[in-house]
Amino acid sequence: MAASLPIPIYTSLDEVYSSLGTATNHAVRWNDLAEEFENRFGRKPAFIARAPGRVNLIGEHIDYALFGVFPAAVERDILIACAPRSASSYASYTPASNEPSMEQERGRVADPEPLHLPGFVVAENLRHEKYPRKTFAPMRGMSTSKLLDEPTEEDVRAEEWMLDIDKGRLAWESYVKAGYYGVLNRFFPPTSLVTTTNPHPIPVDMLVTGTVPAGSGLSSSAAMVVASTLAFLAVNGKLQGISKGELVEMAMENEQRVGVNSGGMDQAASVISTTNSALHITFFPKLAAEPIPLPGSVSSSAASSHAVFIIANSLVVSDKVVHSKTRYNLRVVETLVSARILALRLGISVGKNEKVTLREVLGRWLGAKEVKGGQEEVDVEKLRDGLERIGEEVEKLRPEGKGDEEELGVTLGEMIQMSGLSEEEFNELYLSWVNVEATHFQLYKRSKHVFSEALRVLQFRDVCLRSATSSITTQSTLEELGALMNESQESCSKLFECSCPELDELTRLAREAGAYGSRLTGAGWGGCTVSLVAESDVDSFISKIKKAYAPYHNLEGEALHEVIFATKPSSGACVYKFE
Ligand code: NG1
Fold first, then answer.
1. Are 343 and 413 in the same domain?
2. What angle do CA 359, 363, 364 make, to 5 degrees?
3. 244 within 8 A of 3, measured Cβ to Cβ
4. In terms of residue numbers, what domain contains 330?
5. CA proximity to 395, closest of 445, 357, 452
6. 287 lines ligand 1 (CB under 6 A)
7. 383 and 280 housed in the same domain
């Protein structure tokens, strides 16, 4: 239901945030951005696209196994001011930095800078010293200079749009380009002839700013891709008729172009969230999002306990793209292969070419019928019951003859043999589209994490729903939620191995400082933790963590607030239209 709503288009800022001037002073930020856009491009922006980061409260690394997750959008966000470029606007254009005036697009774009080229993008960032200005043009599988001339019919019948995203290097503009791809492919088919009825994408100027810290597990990458997709939709007049669900799908596909085979949680949370609620997002058999009020966010009596979520950055930067071979993408492959092997061991049939997920295996095990385009829906009760029982079956993946203390992984050869596929079939199905590296693949531990974490998500949801029907959030409700968060951290650390010493330390310190529960949030291996803390204890909690966590010792004031802060569920992505 929430996914079928249209993308909100606002003309006033108080429609965007529930309360202005909270963590950062939003009104000042938005004005500064619009003014700076005018300084740099000589005219006002036409739109500002906004996409928030998210904090995942529980349900880590299970979205790509197609199990439901439980994130909430945060107030921190990415903003992209943008406007179509007209002939008169390039005259006043003044680059903000001393960067070379043109990204060298592998020598395909000729000097002087062809600002008028179809779909040509000038992307600037407010922090231009760190994120230099970039310019690029989409190409229909042929040299850009040809686009300038009269293209022949053959020239413009290309297979794919090309934007040259470098997957081996983390570059800020890659996320802008990733957002552009979806819009190009959906609205400007690369294979068709350019005619007046099938026009070129519009040249655009954009200025980006953001308050979501990069590489911190708050999903700055998804926020960038969602905001960029929205900005290109808005400038090209294609916003009407796009639902939130469609935007999520576009953003998911777009982000995969940066080189990470991500699930869909971040994009869904960034797009579909509403204030005061978390989202229970499910991906199977289709994308659906259910807003769930969080305890303490309903009006309650004086006797109730209020609690808030506090985000703390471990200050270990986790670069998902650079380490994807041994971390994120490896987990995706391990999780998928474990699904096939578990299915075989449970006597469930799996097609030779089928990349079955753990969620689908559970559905089949529970007797869900295969229907056209997927599997029939399984209700939450049945799913919870199945997750409670399948834990024992996962033991069938435990390598024989190996004790608790021993290595529980299997080699590539062993894994192929267990999969029932030939080496060639296995490589084609599981390794041809991704680059991974491991001596041992941890099928048992990964699937044990996925099923237990999926169950914790449903339990967390149940506790929140129960508490929403009562006017009082009791101590025991918060303790139940906290316990689930702590179990999740343990599982992420020991079974999924996506924590790191600093995250383990920070979550332990949070519990010692009085949190009901604390866990890593997002992909892990660095980034942030989220802790559930009584509202009355927020200040003392933060000062205890500051004292105890060495990387915070020298931080004061705004610098401290940048790394540890309480957060409220925020609204999802939108477009602000200047009138
Ligand atoms: P972050 O923390 O944004 O890197 C990643 C994935 C999610 C999910 C989590 C782990 C992307 C864009 N996001 O989140 O889909 O799998 O890890 O739960 O890759």
1. yes
2. 120
3. yes
4. 324-446
5. 445
6. no
7. no
Pairing status of strand 9-10 against strand 574-577: parallel
The answer to whether residue 111 is catalytic is no
Model-level pTM?
0.84
DSSP code at position 293: E
Assess whether 347 and 434 both reside in one domain.
yes
121 SS3 class:
strand
Asked, for residue 543, whether it belongs to a domain, the answer is: no
Per-residue pLDDT reduced to its tens digit, 166-183: 766 678 899 999 999 889
Residue 522, ligand 1, Cβ within 6 A: yes
Q: Which of 53, 35, 32, 31 minimizes the C-alpha distance to 44?
A: 35
Count of H-run helices and E-run strands, the chain? 18, 15
- 14, 166, 266, 404: which one is catalytic? 266
Instruction: Determine the Cα–Cα distance for residues 467 and 135; give it in Å rounded to an integer.
Output: 51
Give the residue, by CA position, lying nearest to ligand 1 atom 5: 523
Domain boundary among 446, 464, 490: 446
3-class state of residue 153 by DSSP: helix
d(CA 82, CA 103): 19
Does one domain contain both 248 and 166? yes
Tokens of 129: 């010293």
Q: Judge if 233 and 344 occupy the same domain.
A: no
Q: Name the pairing type of β-strands 370-371 and 307-313.
A: unpaired
Q: What is the CATH number of the domain that holds 242?
A: 3.30.230.10
Domain count across the chain: 2
Q: What is the pLDDT of residues 196-248, one digit of tens each?
A: 555 789 999 999 999 998 877 798 989 999 999 999 999 999 999 899 999 99
Same domain, 129 and 205: yes
Write out the H or E segment, with its range, that includes residue 126. none
Ligand 1 center to 266 CA (angstroms): 6
Give the CATH number for residue 415: 1.20.1440.340
Q: How far apart are CA 359 and CA 396, in angstroms?
A: 17
d(CA 518, CA 19): 27
Q: Which atom of ligand 1 is nearest to the CA of 222?
A: 12
Long-range contacts, 395-402 (Cβ 8 Å, 24+)? 396/342, 396/345, 396/346, 397/338, 397/341, 397/342, 397/345, 397/443, 397/444, 397/447, 398/444, 399/444
Give a yes or no: residue 279 inside a domain.
yes
Decide whether any atom of ligand 1 lies within 6 Å of the 523 Cβ.
yes
Residue 34: inside a domain: yes
Ligand 1 mutation target, pool 64, 76, 328, most atoms within 8 A of CB:
328
In a domain, 453, yes or no: no
User: Where does the pLDDT of residue 72 fall: very low under 50, low under 70, confident under 90, or very high at 90 and above?
Assistant: very high
Domain check: are 72 and 184 in the same one? yes
Task: Out of 415, 446, 477, pick the residue that ends a domain.
Answer: 446
Residues 308 and 265: their CA atoms lie apart, in Å, by: 22
Same domain assignment for residues 338 and 424? yes
